[in-house]
Amino acid sequence: MKSNTKQFPKNKIAWLWENMEGKRALYFVGILGTVLYNILQLTIPYFSGKIVDLFLTGENAATNLQVHRDLLYRLLFAMVGFTFLRVIVVYGSCMIYETVSQSVLYRVRNYLYDKLQRQDMTFYSTYRTGDLMTRQTGDLDAVRHMVAWVVRMVVESFSLFAAAAVFFLYTNWKLALCVLVISPFVFWIIYLFRNRVAPMHAALREKLAQMNTCAQENISGNRVVKAFAREDYEIEKFDRANTDYAETNKATGMVWLKFFPIVESIANLMPVVLLAVGGVFMIRGQLTMGDYVAFSGLIWAIANPMRQMGNIMNEFQRFSAASKKVMELYYSEPKIRDEENAVSHPERFEGKIEFDNVSFQYEDGDLPVLHNISFTAHPNETVAIMGETGCGKTSLINLIPRFYEPTEGQIRIDGIPVEQLKLYDLRKQIGLATQDVLLYSDTIEGNIAYGDDSIKMNEVVKFARYSAAADFISKMPEGYDTLVGERGVGLSGGQKQRISLARALAIRPSVLILDDTTSAVDMETEKQIQQSLRELDFPCTKIVIAQRISTTKTADKIIVLQNGYIEEMGTHEELMEKKGYYYELVKLQTGVDEL
Ligand code: DGT
Ligand code: MG
């Protein structure tokens, strides 16, 4: 298991840095490339200024052109050379940004997926699927964008600004100060903008998750939509989410438009200041024509970073909102995990299961669901659990593989409390066929061999036979190679249940848990399944939730639950004697008034 002990870092940038492991030096080279590229931007105005002063406007321009023509060529050649160099540097650094950002994306995406696999049931009932999908897609893309674009733009803007400012100050510090004096004002404006736009990006990100959730739920529930002819309603629902997202997007864009005119005016003011002040300086002879050309050729290097600030801040806030969501998942810890001194138990269990005064309540529930449950299932026994709907049967069996933790009491397998066992070893030994059958988009064979893909075809067939699925599978055009769609589309409810039973059996579990697994199969098929379960070629303790007396009758122990309490417990004969709930149920199911 990967380390689960990562600390939540102080900030998002530290987190990004952590995930750049192995690529940090390369990224640094990329940043240096950006700085270099922007410094090289200065070469053109510098050389143009020189050419103007020496060969076009200076006193000795004509003489210079004749005598120092080679210098003119050298200057021109240098301009072309530096331009090529700049292209190479920018190309290289772009490659680096892309490489590093993709590597961060890959690493974080895999890590998040790994995290998702290890989360417990409570996590999955807390987060919506659409929201989790958004974290894995849109949010992660904002993180990639930060590494590939935002950082580059920040470095570019600052280095360009700084390089130009230094060049200006070096060339003519008085004129430079006149031009630069307005720039701090822009930073203040950007700060105000940031405060306004940050909450908008957080809201925008939520709206995107809501829209994705809406789409995801609609796609997974398409059959219900069709059955109730609710297409129009669903379209309207999505339209609302889409409008909401679009409106919030627009509103976020509009925030910048409020600040944009001020920033743009300031940026446009700079050439005006340069023209006015520079003109005066030239008249007074404090500035050469060449220097003026260099200034005006570079004034964009001061103005553009200012214009770019709004964009950068917008993207940074998008990253900020998205990375918060990604990091929440990145550092989330399942509550149920291996204890520090968890016991390894790679070998099979004998299969003795003890519930010792177990009570349970869902974290988000108001009332306890199970109360003081105590019973023992001995190795190889079958324990049937019955009771009306909602009485806590599924909740009870979910405690055995530690999907949830009991609030009181203890569950032991072979005398070892389940919480002391390594989760992997515990779950690997439990074959579970859940109440809601979920099959994967795979072949029938792939689905049966899901828990142990090393099993051979003849074994897949054997387990299909155990679960009375072999007949209908062999009648399918492609047999075991038939592809079943997402969630087992293309199969009947009873067929899906039987494949899910075969899948649970295929791992040869020491404990088999069946949650209403034969509810959708006919009586005759169910009888076959019961027979096979008694004749399994490996020892196995079975906990079977069922409603039909035909299933529970032969169990070694029948537990009748009512409102989370054990109402009755015993064999079929004992419970019949007792003439309680079970007895009434038998009467009801057999249609006989007196037994
Ligand atoms: P069934 O399958 O309809 O025959 O019913 P059972 O007996 O399997 O009932 P079960 O264990 O699923 O539910 C027992 C109670 O717990 C019921 O009132 C619903 C509630 N419950 C079930 N799952 C959750 C959950 O994830 N969170 C919360 N808060 N309550 C739950
Ligand atoms: Mg249930």
TrEMBL record:
Gene3D superfamilies attached to this UniProt entry:
ABC transporter type 1, transmembrane domain, P-loop containing nucleotide triphosphate hydrolases
- Which Pfam families does UniProt cross-reference here? ABC_membrane (PF00664), ABC_tran (PF00005)
Identification of the protein by name:
ABC transporter ATP-binding protein
Extract the InterPro entries matched here: AAA+_ATPase, ABC1_TM_dom, ABC1_TM_sf, ABC_transporter-like_ATP-bd, ABC_transporter-like_CS, P-loop_NTPase, Type_1_exporter
Question: Which Enzyme Commission numbers does its entry carry?
Answer: 3.6.3.-
The cellular location(s) given in this protein's UniProt record come to:
Cell membrane
Q: Report the SMART domains cross-referenced here.
A: AAA
